[in-house]
Predict the structure.
Amino acid sequence: SLFALIAQLSGPTTSLSTFTAASVVKNGLQKAGFEITKLPGFGGKREMIAAQKTTAPQVLATPSSDKKDFAAPWATRRQPQAAGERHALIIGGGLAGCHTARALAERHWQVTLIEQHDELATEGSGNPQAVLYAKLSPRHEPLAQFNLAALLYAQRFYQPLWQSLGESFGQACGVLQLAHTEAEARLQQSLRDSYGNAPGLVNFCTPQEASAQAGVELEHPAVYFPDAGWINPPALCRHLADHPNIYVTRHTNVGVLRRLNNVWQIDDKHGQAIAAAPVVVVATANHSQQFSQTQHLPLRPIRGQISYLPATTASRRLKTVVCSDGYLAPARQSDTDYHSLGATFNLKDPDTAIRPADHRYNWDKLVANTPALAQCFTPPDPAQQHGRVAFRCTTRDYLPLAGPVPNYEEFLQDYAPLRKDAKTRIDSAGNYWPGLFANFGHGSRGLAYAPLCAALVADQIDNAALPVSRELATALNPARFIIRDLIRKKL
């Protein structure tokens, strides 16, 4: 199992050397796919071993998948991305697609970013003010671990952009999460044990301290994220795509994704070829199910409507983002001076029209949770109020899908014994589509999740060291739902 793990962690050209020349080492490395060479030893040693990775073993004798330090065999790609032309196609010009394009471009890939609309960040990523925020939890589970890792990574990623791009891009104004319910108050109290000594990440505030941070009166205690804030996603996406290694095609409707002669070809809805490359990343949120290779991935569209509140003299005192059931951002200084207030959460609701009832719902939440803050505004007329509707893309476990795309039929065949016994040990590596990756399912936290997911996908494409633990990479792997549904006899 040790040599199998070494092979699993190695790229196609990995080399190694070892002081020992014992036969168990030589034989173990050879069986794991290494070519062995004996060399003169050193320090009085007669011989040592050098080895070069040449082949990938088809069966991995790794420890059982419940060991957190090791990847489950199904989460290991049977055929890692081969070296070749460093050209990738990214389908989708929202936060996930633009972050992935930038991550690959900075790793010296040539990237073609394909967007169906005239501008980037037009659909779910198109709100004028998105909040950098992730839900902390005292639990030791993948969702909590990912939220913390993503928030820390995103804050570090955005800090120089806040400093250089100005207020039209966003504000590093901090974010207050109010303890507006008893359940939220209990949660924040439990967070003190884990984060009470991490003032650089989060501070715990009394109502008076929260009011001082916000610049307006607040009635509840809160946790304060000093390095968070809000960002204009369309401005962010334009910045991310502004790189010499990125070519953007707009107003391009992708119809079919197919693999021909070891490359991926993208056709439009009329069957005409658009582009081809060895690597494709699907970053089209709820639209990802239009492709045969990704149609099996479970996605849930959730409608959300935000409301715009015209700024007043009193409301301009608001210095931070305030979150409770929804959120209110500080006034956006632009051609129109307004606050973003949101957002509704409508499951199984495909309506794209702005509804006065939803404006009223957003306003009522503001009044209920922060009545003093609501008094800073003139009560709006919902029938005349402006806003925006967009659809979040979520998964059943609320974790994104970030990683290689599994070959659905091959997975069903290879891991069919799990239907009979969930504890069946199957050491075969997973059969994934060569060069095809996913990055979607970020829900309402794309601003926080997308940078780390983009780095993860880019490093998987590059066969590089991953930016997260192997356990977390497995938790984000798009194949996880196939394995779970086989175990639960849903497939």
